[in-house]
Request: fold
Amino acid sequence: MKDILVIQGGGRPKGNTAQLIDSFVEGVKDTGHSVEVISLIKNEVKGCLGCNACRYGKPCIQKDAFNDIASRVKHADCIVFASPLYFWTLSARIKAFIERFYCIAEEDPNPLLGRYEKYPIKDCALLMTSADNFFWTFEQAVSYYQFALVNYIGFHDKGMVLAGGCGDTNGKPQIDKTDYLQKAYKFGKQIYT
Reply:
């Protein structure tokens, strides 16, 4: 059995992203894996200060939810980043959360090209929603995910559900009028098959 941690980086409590997460979680649970969802709206995580006080085995000096969540990150087999599209990329909450991974890095005497340290080896996935559905809608978000989490930190990408065309930003969630809830459920069921 795998331990899957979903980090919800914004969105309305019953909005498109929340519904996408619920469908994914249902699929994961139907295969018997363990899954936990942590909302960054309910658990504030501030951006990294760059103070270096946390280097190599020390907790972050900031007094927010990250130090409690860090132990769950270390324990999880897979971290799923879930966010609505904000200004063509991931939410600021998700970005702040990723920045704070700095304190779970370990010293690496021979880092790979472009790295300075090593991180715990994890799988990762991306769930996103958007009102727009252009061919380029998720391009910046996917680029950030690939460069920051997969290429730099070294997580193993398990896939993505990019749910575009879920209604305008002022209206009610419309993800139920798309096939993305079924796709998220199927993705949850198949993430570890």
Remarks:
- Strands lie at 3-8, 34-39, 78-84, 106-107, 117-118, 123-129, 156-163.
- The domain at 3-190 is CATH 3.40.50.360 (Rossmann fold).
- The chain has one domain: 3-190.
- The mean pLDDT is 93.
